[in-house]
């Protein structure tokens, strides 16, 4: 068992660790910093600007893990985004956005998936811990069949490929990994009621232990097309789905921590849950087991 895990471990990570090697600091000047020999990255936000970074590589499918410690104290009005995105007007995107709050009030984790430029597939959650005290792992599993959002390895959302009923799924456009910290006090906290307190600036978010177990895209092709490389890779994520315990955990999160679910938004889907609703162009709820009781957040 030990031997096996050592063996798998040695091949499982396409890229890990050093922020200098994996990311470019893309905006905010000195507000974005890589420290401790590439082990730690910090983003700052002050009144003049936020900051952000972007992966040097592009990926087409993979499992991406990042440990993040969110802005502590009064983080109302701030948004820390961690997402995958392709480029162009018909871009695909897979989003985690962490909406700050007053000290002691809960962050909201906002998730969304864009396919060919179209989003509107939001689900929002509270967390079962204070995300500002310690680092926690936020992961995106993206394969041909589904997208799984995980927090500390607990699935909070499963977005399915429903191409068989004519709905687009992000699977043709390579994506980069992005993160940024910015001010969005017109909507982030209690729908924009609570504004950023600039006397508390600069606001800081911390990143470490990045891992991409993923197919890297370069010169118009994926390195997963190479059978040699692919055979030497940990492929679990390529077919990853939820087992019984994963489904139990997902139900637990959805039941106790879900704040908003587009699938249950009666303003958008007056007929109720539109799963497999086949009208051309009609929105389709692609999420696994959406609980019908969750209504729109006020
Ligand atoms: C902030 O706290 C308030 C009060 O508990 C809550 O209603 C809201 O959902 C929290 N999160 C955000 C991002 O507004």
TrEMBL record:
<comment type="function">
    <text>Catalyzes xyloglucan endohydrolysis (XEH) and/or endotransglycosylation (XET). Cleaves and religates xyloglucan polymers, an essential constituent of the primary cell wall, and thereby participates in cell wall construction of growing tissues.</text>
</comment>
<keyword id="KW-0964">Secreted</keyword>
<dbReference type="InterPro" id="IPR044791">
    <property type="entry name" value="Beta-glucanase/XTH"/>
</dbReference>
<dbReference type="GO" id="GO:0042546">
    <property type="term" value="P:cell wall biogenesis"/>
</dbReference>
<dbReference type="InterPro" id="IPR000757">
    <property type="entry name" value="Beta-glucanase-like"/>
</dbReference>
<feature type="signal peptide">
    <location>
        <begin position="1"/>
        <end position="16"/>
    </location>
</feature>
<dbReference type="Pfam" id="PF00722">
    <property type="entry name" value="Glyco_hydro_16"/>
</dbReference>
<feature type="active site" description="Proton donor">
    <location>
        <position position="97"/>
    </location>
</feature>
<keyword id="KW-0326">Glycosidase</keyword>
<dbReference type="InterPro" id="IPR013320">
    <property type="entry name" value="ConA-like_dom_sf"/>
</dbReference>
<keyword id="KW-0052">Apoplast</keyword>
<keyword id="KW-0325">Glycoprotein</keyword>
<dbReference type="GO" id="GO:0016762">
    <property type="term" value="F:xyloglucan:xyloglucosyl transferase activity"/>
</dbReference>
<dbReference type="InterPro" id="IPR010713">
    <property type="entry name" value="XET_C"/>
</dbReference>
<keyword id="KW-0808">Transferase</keyword>
<feature type="active site" description="Nucleophile">
    <location>
        <position position="93"/>
    </location>
</feature>
<dbReference type="InterPro" id="IPR008263">
    <property type="entry name" value="GH16_AS"/>
</dbReference>
<keyword id="KW-0134">Cell wall</keyword>
<protein>
    <recommendedName>
        <fullName>Xyloglucan endotransglucosylase/hydrolase</fullName>
        <ecNumber>2.4.1.207</ecNumber>
    </recommendedName>
</protein>
<keyword id="KW-0961">Cell wall biogenesis/degradation</keyword>
<feature type="domain" description="GH16">
    <location>
        <begin position="13"/>
        <end position="207"/>
    </location>
</feature>
<dbReference type="GO" id="GO:0004553">
    <property type="term" value="F:hydrolase activity, hydrolyzing O-glycosyl compounds"/>
</dbReference>
<keyword id="KW-1015">Disulfide bond</keyword>
<comment type="similarity">
    <text>Belongs to the glycosyl hydrolase 16 family.</text>
</comment>
<dbReference type="GO" id="GO:0010411">
    <property type="term" value="P:xyloglucan metabolic process"/>
</dbReference>
<dbReference type="Pfam" id="PF06955">
    <property type="entry name" value="XET_C"/>
</dbReference>
<dbReference type="InterPro" id="IPR016455">
    <property type="entry name" value="XTH"/>
</dbReference>
<keyword id="KW-0732">Signal</keyword>
<keyword id="KW-0378">Hydrolase</keyword>
<feature type="glycosylation site" description="N-linked (GlcNAc...) asparagine">
    <location>
        <position position="101"/>
    </location>
</feature>
<dbReference type="GO" id="GO:0071555">
    <property type="term" value="P:cell wall organization"/>
</dbReference>
<dbReference type="GO" id="GO:0048046">
    <property type="term" value="C:apoplast"/>
</dbReference>
């Amino acid at each position: 068992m030990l031997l096996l895990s050592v063996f798998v471990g040695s091949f499982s990570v396409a890229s890990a660790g050093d922020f200098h090697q994996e990311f470019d600091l893309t905006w905010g000047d000195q507000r974005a910093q890589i420290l401790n020999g590439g082990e730690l990255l910090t983003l700052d936000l002050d009144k003049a600007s936020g900051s952000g970074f972007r992966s040097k590589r592009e990926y087409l499918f993979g499992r991406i893990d990042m440990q993040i410690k969110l802005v502590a104290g009064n983080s109302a009005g701030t948004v820390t985004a961690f997402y995958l995105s392709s480029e162009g007007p018909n871009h695909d995107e897979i989003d985690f956005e962490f909406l700050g709050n007053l000290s002691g009030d809960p962050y909201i984790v906002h998730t969304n998936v864009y396919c060919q430029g179209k989003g509107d597939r939001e689900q929002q959650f509270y967390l079962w811990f204070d995300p500002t005290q310690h680092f926690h792992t936020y992961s995106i599993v993206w394969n041909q069949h589904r997208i799984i959002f995980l927090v500390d390895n607990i699935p909070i959302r499963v977005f399915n490929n429903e191409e068989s009923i004519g709905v687009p799924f992000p699977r043709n456009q390579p994506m980069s990994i992005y993160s940024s910290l910015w001010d969005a006090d017109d909507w982030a906290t209690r729908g924009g009621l609570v504004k950023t307190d600039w006397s508390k600036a600069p606001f800081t978010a911390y990143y470490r232990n990045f891992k991409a177990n993923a197919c890297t895209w370069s010169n118009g092709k994926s390195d997963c097309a190479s059978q040699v490389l692919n055979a030497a890779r940990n492929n679990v994520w390529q077919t990853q789905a939820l087992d019984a315990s994963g489904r139990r955990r997902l139900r637990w999160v959805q039941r106790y921590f879900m704040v908003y679910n587009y699938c249950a938004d009666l303003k958008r889907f007056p007929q109720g849950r539109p799963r497999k609703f086949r009208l051309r162009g009609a929105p389709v709820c692609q999420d696994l087991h959406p609980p019908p009781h969750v209504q729109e957040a006020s």
